Amino acid sequence: MKQTGTELVKRGMAEMQKGGVIMDVINAEQAKIAEAAGAVAIMALERVPSDIRKAGGVARMADPRIVEEVMGAVSIPVMAKARIGHIVEARVLEAMGVDYIDESEVLTPADEEYHLLKSDYTVPFVCGCRDLGEAARRIGEGASMLRTKGEPGTGNIVEAVRHIRKVNAQVRKVVGMTEDELMTEAKLLGAPFELLREIKRLGRLPVVNFAAGGVATPADAALMMELGADGVFVGSGIFKSDNPEKFARAIVEATTHYRDYKLIAEISKELGTPMKGIDIAQLHPNERMQERGW
Amino acid sequence: MKRMGVLALQGAVREHVQMLEQLDCEVVLVKQIADLNQLDGLILPGGESTTMRKLLDRYQLLEPIRTLAQQGLPMFGTCAGLILLAKELVDYEPHLAVMDVTVARNSYGRQVDSFEVQLDIPVIGQSIPAVFIRAPHITSVGENVNILAEHDGKIVLAQDGHFLGCSFHPELTADTRILEYFVTSIV
């Protein structure tokens, strides 16, 4: 019997994205540039994170027309963002046939207590995480893919580095623990016990974990791959750069060949000025998107 | 011990590697031309075919792989890998264009329509789990091509001499029978 929306089908979709780059776009033209540069998927948005920062106010799901326009423009999968806990935005995106939903802290949360019960949906979800507890809670709710939160729209990789190192160190710790130590670890992390057992058995997270939130250069993308990310999301970096086509291609190549340093040198030449970037210490705690979600 | 390459530009590389190791093969990750030396077979994994094609071009891998295919190197393409092998694609330019089949991309709709099902494949076995993710299907085959499995009236697994191609992802399951068929009967 044919079954849709199973865990295998939803997680499998993310497995197919491994080693690839997912790019933020705001219209059909950018979507085509991203696809031509070799993106494995695109994220359809109304504004990229750095513009959301500048605009302030409440950031919501994109206008469905933009999402529709982008879906019609490319053959690669299209993702879109829903607010944390916003059941209806997520259902609307699912009904539109979006291939993946990002329950994202980049948008203003709709619920400050509860995330979506993602296992209820046929469409798969990706969620942000800063540590293994957060990662495990999202998987427990049914997320089929993870990404670091980083600090979106800053062009500063420091937070994404912190988050991927933290998650991976905690995974290594769980894998090295004895079975009888896992329940206490589950309590300390706020993580589902069964999931820690699964992580120990697999020797890794049961879903893919991409880097996101601050990737501004090809070297940043390669760094995140070196630190164990399964792939890379690039938000504001590409279409805020001087030459988006060249920049997008360079990010894709640096992600595939992240240890080929001569190649990275070659493709990093004359890319123009990258995003100016923001020092995280200059951000007021209220402005830190990574603090959203729990 | 058979020496199997897995095209490792992007996609479900790890899954194929683990399965090949279970089948006692030596595995080579193919990222550049030098990795193609002395292979007994090559796996083209699932992933995004448009991305893989861009990377094949950029690292000049397309021609060397096509030449090896024409010289008789056994190749198995799953999902995006089938798209890479196909001689013709509906609405798109073909890539390696070596396997005598015509393939349509995204034949089952978008991700919400992706599914899993059990297939009975006469030459391989019964109740084989098959995961279809934004999957392509084979719309027609050349005269020497063997149709090994169909689902809902669509061809989803076929063999053209030393080429094997399927719409779905055997590598996402724990069932090794299809890969085993490739490694023991074709390679």
TrEMBL record, chain A:
Q: What is its EC number?
A: 4.3.3.6
Active site residues per record: 81
What pathway, per the record?
Cofactor biosynthesis; pyridoxal 5'-phosphate biosynthesis
Q: Does the keyword Protein biosynthesis apply?
A: no
The entry's function note states:
Catalyzes the formation of pyridoxal 5'-phosphate from ribose 5-phosphate (RBP), glyceraldehyde 3-phosphate (G3P) and ammonia. The ammonia is provided by the PdxT subunit. Can also use ribulose 5-phosphate and dihydroxyacetone phosphate as substrates, resulting from enzyme-catalyzed isomerization of RBP and G3P, respectively.
Question: Which residues participate in D-ribose 5-phosphate binding?
Answer: 24, 153, 214, 235-236
Query: Taking every annotated instance into account, which residue ranges of this chain make up the domain PdxS/SNZ N-terminal?
Result: 8-212
Q: Which residues bind D-glyceraldehyde 3-phosphate?
A: 165
Catalytic reaction list = aldehydo-D-ribose 5-phosphate + D-glyceraldehyde 3-phosphate + L-glutamine = pyridoxal 5'-phosphate + L-glutamate + phosphate + 3 H2O + H(+)
Q: Which residues form a coiled coil?
A: none
The EC category is lyase
What Pfam families has UniProt attached to this entry? SOR_SNZ
PROSITE patterns per the UniProt record, alphabetical: PDXS_SNZ_1, PDXS_SNZ_2
As for family, the record states:
Belongs to the PdxS/SNZ family.
Q: What is this protein called?
A: Pyridoxal 5'-phosphate synthase subunit PdxS
| Assembly | In the presence of PdxT, forms a dodecamer of heterodimers.
Looking at the record's lineage, which domain of life comes first? Bacteria
Tell me the name of the encoding gene: pdxS
Which keywords label this protein? Lyase, Pyridoxal phosphate, Schiff base
TrEMBL record, chain B:
Q: Name one Pfam family in it.
A: SNO
Keywords of the record, alphabetical order, are: Glutamine amidotransferase, Hydrolase, Lyase, Pyridoxal phosphate
InterPro entries in UniProt: Class_I_gatase-like (IPR029062), PdxT/SNO (IPR002161), PdxT/SNO_CS (IPR021196)
Q: Where is the signal peptide?
A: none
Which reaction is the catalytic activity of this chain?
Answer: aldehydo-D-ribose 5-phosphate + D-glyceraldehyde 3-phosphate + L-glutamine = pyridoxal 5'-phosphate + L-glutamate + phosphate + 3 H2O + H(+); L-glutamine + H2O = L-glutamate + NH4(+)
> Which residues are the active-site ones?
79 (nucleophile), 169 (charge relay system), 171 (charge relay system)
Q: In which pathway does it act?
A: Cofactor biosynthesis; pyridoxal 5'-phosphate biosynthesis
**Which CDD domains does the record match to this protein?**
GATase1_PB
Question: Does this UniProt record's set of keywords contain Hydrolase?
Answer: yes
EC number(s) for this protein?
A: 4.3.3.6, 3.5.1.2
Binding residues for L-glutamine: 47-49, 105, 133-134
Q: In UniProt terms, what function does this protein have?
A: Catalyzes the hydrolysis of glutamine to glutamate and ammonia as part of the biosynthesis of pyridoxal 5'-phosphate. The resulting ammonia molecule is channeled to the active site of PdxS.
Q: Which family does it belong to?
A: Belongs to the glutaminase PdxT/SNO family.
Concerning HAMAP family, the annotation shows: PdxT
Describe the protein's quaternary organization and the partners it interacts with: In the presence of PdxS, forms a dodecamer of heterodimers. Only shows activity in the heterodimer.
User: Could you tell me what this protein is called?
Assistant: Pyridoxal 5'-phosphate synthase subunit PdxT
